[in-house]
Design goal:
Length: about 575
């Protein structure tokens, strides 16, 4: 990196903050190039790239070969299975032969992976990329109709799945004419192929296909507010595009030896896969996996037992974690250092608990499946502002614009947009070119997310365009109300939506999950929460209706689903 680029990177740190020599070296070693004409950094993307070669392929030979790459903990038996980088590469080569010879998979074909947080999932991804094929991810939380939709929409020729999850879905093969081969981890039936058969294949018969950085690799299905999930297609460059920002999200620690990674996030989600699974393998670290359902106390015990140093957890999961008292006393051997979070705003109260009680760094990142990592935090460089999304990361541009695409000044709400040459941009929506084109707003790529930027360059999330509440002429973002509600001692979780109202167009409705000590909701608590919001935000943002719930509905990626809450309100108002 030239001196101008290095100086600009160091300037990204808090003005006046002295960085130690190690931090400076790690910062200037990021894979960034300085664009003198544009006066900004650009992420370094090679011409040739392949996710298999750029992860396990880097470490399968040499000093890292025998180190543990993947540790799978069976949630039913407690048995632990480990594979080294060399063993993982060998298994991927063997499965690639099986996919080619038994299923006819070739460059550009789609292989659907539906096997959850298991060894087989990583092997299937690597094997498909070796062949130049495209992996379509399928969450095990999907219902039958959604599984059928993804298989048919993607045109998947092959499905890699797990016996216990596939058993109630076997009838779907009649609805999926393109699906020719089903490979099953566990007990296979009839014409299904047992996953273990790959062990009999000759790994030397697997010659990796050379792929370019722009060749398609990963097809992630993401849900919107309406309709079936749509396919988001990424290229092999995605690992290189994410690399500098992931180093920042992980506090410039990824190049240290001996780290251990785990996430409760679904590996079918871009966060779980691209922010934890691939980076841990890319940087030569151990990835721990289990299919055990997330529970806060279990998670802390699990991370202590397996020496987890870095994790990704959604804000919803962290909010539940923050209800635990004295965690370091109860789990004194916990090695956790850094948490990366994203997908929805992290309440300031939760961030303070993570720092003060759990004693970890927690860096929030912003993005979406289609385009990611434009904004985030790195506490090693700048102080965190509780409730803020962070600042614009080097190598990226995050602008705020109005409905006409014109920039808005600091302090005003605008839509987050980024240029069309941003490195993490997807290739497009699968078989939906018009929808891809619809993301453009002049020179910008739209996110439909609203935010405010303060004078220090920090961004503050204000909600989705379709989450915006319009009440009596006011434009109200739900996130700031949720943040204030969660500062109240009785509130564990909060979600805010708009409900139709004849007089005001919409009214603000709050859904509340109470802390264990708070008892039940009622008029007295309604009044206390109204006064709390009024004191912090003013009268026009005070919810006019309150709903108390045992838990909030979440999407398959762990985000609170405001769409489901709006549907719940609509169902209650429908005539019987």
């Amino acid at each position: 990196m030239n001196p101008a680029g290095a100086a600009a990177l160091l300037h990204d740190a808090e003005p006046g903050r002295a960085l130690d020599s190690t931090t400076q070296a790690r910062l200037t070693a990021l894979d960034l190039d300085w664009d003198e004409a544009a006066q900004r950094h650009r992420v370094r993307i090679p011409a040739q790239a392949n996710i298999a070669a750029d992860t396990v392929g880097q470490h399968a030979h040499g000093p890292q070969a025998d180190r543990t790459a993947l540790r799978f903990v069976d949630d039913t038996t407690g048995a632990v299975h480990e594979l080294s980088f060399a063993e993982l590469a060998d298994a991927a080569a063997r499965l690639a032969v099986l996919l080619r010879e038994r299923a006819g998979v070739a460059r550009g074909d789609v292989v659907a992976v539906h096997s959850g947080q298991r060894v087989e999932t990583v092997i299937a991804h690597l094997a498909a990329y070796r062949l130049g094929a495209i992996v379509a991810t399928l969450s095990q939380l999907y219902g039958a109709d959604t599984v059928a939709h993804v298989l048919n929409d993607s045109g998947a020729r092959v499905l890699v799945t797990q016996d216990t999850v596939w058993a109630p879905l076997r009838h779907l093969r009649l609805r999926c004419p393109a699906l020719r081969t089903v490979i099953v981890a566990g007990a296979a039936q009839a014409d299904e192929v047992p996953f273990w058969q790959h062990r009999h294949c000759d790994p030397t018969a697997s010659v990796p296909v050379a792929t370019r950085a722009e060749d398609p690799a990963l097809l992630v299905y993401t849900s919107g507010s309406t309709g079936q999930p749509k396919g988001v297609l990424h290229a092999h460059r995605i690992l290189h595009a994410y690399k500098p920002t992931l180093e920042l999200f992980n506090n410039l620690e990824l190049r240290e030896p001996g780290l251990v990674f785990w996430t409760a996030a679904d590996w079918a989600w871009v966060g779980g896969l691209n922010d934890i699974v691939f980076p841990s393998l890319q940087f030569g670290h151990c990835l721990v996996a289990t299919q055990r359902r997330y529970e806060p106390e279990w998670a802390l015990q699990f991370m202590q037992q397996h020496g987890v140093t870095h994790t990704l957890l959604t804000p919803t999961a962290l909010n539940r974690l923050a209800q635990i008292h004295t965690p370091r006393t109860r789990w004194p051997q916990l090695k956790l250092r850094t948490i990366f979070t994203g997908g929805e705003p992290l309440p300031g109260a939760t961030l303070r608990w993570l720092h003060d009680e759990l004693g970890v760094a927690c860096n929030e990142g912003y993005g979406m499946s289609e385009v990611n990592h434009m904004i985030g935090n790195c506490s090693k460089l700048r102080p965190l502002k509780p409730g803020s999304m962070g600042w614009q990361f080097p190598g990226h541009v995050a602008a705020l614009v109005d409905e006409a695409g014109q920039p808005v000044p600091d302090g005003e709400v605008g839509e987050i947009v980024t240029p069309a040459d941003t490195p993490t941009l997807f290739l497009g929506y699968w078989n939906q070119p018009a929808l891809t084109t619809g993301m453009r707003l002049g020179p910008w790529i739209r996110t439909h997310d609203l935010a405010v930027r303060d004078a220090d360059g920090y961004y503050w999330y204000r909600g989705r365009n379709d989450d915006l509440i319009k009440s009596a002429g006011y434009r109200i973002g739900p996130v700031e109300i949720e943040e204030v509600l969660m500062q109240h001692e009785a509130v564990a979780q909060a979600a805010v939506v708009g409900a139709p109202d004849a007089e005001r167009t919409q009214i603000v409705v709050a859904f509340i999950v109470l802390r264990a000590h708070a008892g039940a909701g009622g008029e007295d608590l309604d009044g206390a929460l109204r006064a709390h919001v009024r004191a912090h935000l003013g009268p026009y943002k005070v919810p006019r209706s309150w709903r108390y719930m045992e838990q909030l509905p979440c999407t398959s990626t762990g985000k609170v689903s405001r769409a489901a809450l709006r549907d719940l309100l609509q169902a209650r108002t429908q005539p019987k």
